[in-house]
Amino acid sequence: MQILHDTQIPALIRISIFHYLFGYIHPFYDGNGRTSRFITSYYLSKILNPLVGIRLSITTKKSLRAYYKLFEITDAYGNRGDLTPFITGFLRIIRKSIIRVNDLLEEKQRELERYQELLKQIPLKDHASEMICLQLLQAALFSADGVTLSALESPIDKTSRTIREKILSLPEGLVLVNKTRRAHRYILNLKYFDKKCSSI
């Protein structure tokens, strides 16, 4: 773990070195590959961005053959312990993760702007209802399971009771509610949203 804190080595290079050494000491066939990727993702999240850290596991899984090949090349006797092949290869995986995160964010930004324009076509009663719809839109695009009423209190500056009443007054079918948890989760129904706006 000391290598991770050696500030004389650039951060991404020391993360790559650590990743290799951990994988070398704890072979992947015994399940420690996940631990290595978790620790690496954690440090990438701190140095770059949490989304890059999360994306690394996905990128690695999609490039698993090439990923294992890096270890194979670096472990080869003729390589004489040179970590360069692994470092450069792993940096390419990190770069691929960064590019994919950037692409996904740009795509989501375009979707957000598109739905914001469509939202303007729906007659809403007041500013609070507009703000609620914007929050639920973001929940639909960026959240895995929606947003709770209590989480909406701060950005809307209303109580949960008032927010619930506002949601109930929105056009029927515009909001989806996930009731599988104790605190219900809310999102904007994008499919209905598209259909509704196309008929306006």
UniProtKB/TrEMBL annotation:
SUPFAM superfamilies: Fic-like. Keywords: ATP-binding, Coiled coil, Nucleotide-binding. Residues 1-89 form the Fido domain. Gene3D superfamilies: Fido-like domain. The keyword Metal-binding does not apply. The active site is at 26. Residues 98-125 form a coiled coil. Pfam families: Fic. One of its GO terms (molecular function) is ATP binding. InterPro entries: Fido, Fido-like_dom_sf, Fido_containing. ATP binds at residues 30-37, 67-68, 79. The keyword ATP-binding applies. This is Fic/DOC family protein. The lineage of its organism: Bacteria, Bacillati, Bacillota, Negativicutes, Selenomonadales.
